Amino acid sequence: MKYAVVHEWLTPLATGGSELVVQAILDCLYADIYALIDFESCNPDSYLYGRQIGTTFLQHLPRARQGVQKYLPLLPLAIEQLDLRDYDILVSSSHAVAKGILASPHQLHICYCHTPMRYAWDLTWEYLDASRLGKGVPGLFTRYLLHRLRQWDVISANRVDFFIANSRHTARRIWRCYRRQAQVIYPPVNLTRFTVQEEKDEFYVVVSRLVSYKHVREIVQAFNQLGKSLVVIGDGPDLESLRSQAKANVQILGRLSDEQVNSYLRRAKGFVYAAYEDFGIALVEAQACGTPVIAYGQGGATETVRDLRQFPKDSTGWLFSAQTPAAIAEGILAFEAHSAKVKPQTCRWQAEKFSTEQFQIHFKNYLQVCQQKNNPL
Predict the structure, then answer these.
(1) DSSP per residue over 235-280, as a string?
(2) Which of 30, 147, 250, 319 is the most exposed place for a label (fewest CB within 10 A)?
(3) 3-class DSSP state of 292
(4) End-to-end Cα distance, the chain
(5) With the C-alpha atoms ordered 46, 50, 51, 56, is the resulting torsion angle positive or negative?
(6) DSSP secondary structure string, 70-99?
(7) Are strands 293-296 and 270-273 parallel, antiparallel or unpaired?
(8) How would residue 371 be classed by pLDDT, with cut points 50, 70 and 90?
(9) H/E segment holding residue 140
(10) Alpha carbons 122 and 124: distance in angstroms, whole number
């Protein structure tokens, strides 16, 4: 069998959970790889360094290295230009357009869907509000573009033979957008980077991109009210405004090295997270350090964090009810009232359910199931 793996974009700035999925798949499949753009094969620090990667015409457009999202109207056209006729099995890793590749009748197409295209579906209004292209006359064209993207997104979903979702939450979104069933296989988390520390210091930690939909501002406001120690790690457009807002008990450290981040994660009394995530790798990484998680109780957090109220004997944290300073503060106080019940080793055991090894086992098993269903004889 000849395999091809297709991802949206490969750049040094793209280092999230979807890229970890691609790496784990390539570690267990002998496959060629394709993307809209590739600037990783020339990056000496990348596992893809020196590898032959197929790309599209977007590779040669100005400032493509900084991200092809600026060429959003061209993404569907570009992904359809990849010539994949020589392969038996196509695996797309998709959070935007990768699932839109063209396949022949004899080919099997499996899509690992990280999320349906967010800016076309769930976050449409947030993107319109945040962008200068979302208002006035330009806003009309932007809305029409998003309308056409949604149409293409549904049509391209019909090119997929089997969907894999990164969580039950994402599987429900795939059904809502495409009316397609999806097998849940949780993404891989590299647990070897993290070690458990039993004794915790008296501070909480946030590790996140500092953008509005992560709701770090609300966490800072909650800790301003509580007066408890909070460390915020990460970079983004909200960095300076958060620094001006934070009181003396809140440290906004910006971007740190992996070693420094891991040190804070190990020592923290709790990891606080208020974003609505499809999965949320950061929540698993905190638990891998033996650190409890206090998180917004929607999306992937409900699948990775064992809430004290539901699992009193083997809990790993507390889920609060709303993305507001009041609800976050209430969640912190409720967690502290029961925190002695949360054991660092229990957090680690929970994290080990999402290891890279577990992902590869489930992925290879499902790949065989798909092949058998596609060729019943």
Answers:
(1) -STTHHHHHHH--TTEEEEE---HHHHHHHHHH-SEEEE----SS-
(2) 30
(3) coil
(4) 17
(5) positive
(6) GGGGGHHHHHTT---TT-SEEEEEESSSGG
(7) parallel
(8) very high
(9) helix 136-157
(10) 6
User: Residue 40 pLDDT more than 80?
Assistant: yes
Confidence band of 116 (pLDDT split at 50, 70, 90): very high
| Strand pairing class (3-10; 31-38) | parallel
The torsion region of residue 31 among left (phi > 0), alpha (psi -120 to 50) and beta comes to beta
The candidate with the shortest Cα–Cα distance to 301, out of 332, 273, 338, 325, is 273
> What is the total residue count of the chain?
377
Cβ proximity of 278 and 286 under 8 Å: no
Say which residue the tokens 């929970």 belong to: 350
Buried b (16+ CB within 10 A) or exposed e, 236-246: eebbeebbeeb
What pTM was estimated for this model as a whole? 0.89
- 310 vs 316: CA distance, rounded Å: 11
Q: Which backbone phi and psi does 249 adopt, to 5 degrees?
A: -80, -5
Question: Which residue type sits at 282?
Answer: A
26: helix, strand or coil: helix
Three-class SS of residue 57? helix
Which tokens belong to 216?
Answer: 């770090």
> What are the tokens at 91?
């695996």
AA identity, residue 156? S
Query: How far is 199 from 344, CA to CA, in rounded Å?
Result: 9
Q: What DSSP state is assigned to residue 10?
A: E
Long-range contacts of 237-244 (CB under 8 A, 24+ apart): 237/210, 237/211, 238/210, 238/211, 238/212, 239/210, 241/217, 242/210, 242/216, 242/217
Dihedral sign (CA 284, 164, 323, 234): positive
Tokens for 181, please give them.
């069933």
Check pLDDT > 80 for residue 74.
yes
Residue given tokens 């290879």 in the structure block? 364
Q: Which amino acid is present at 198?
A: E
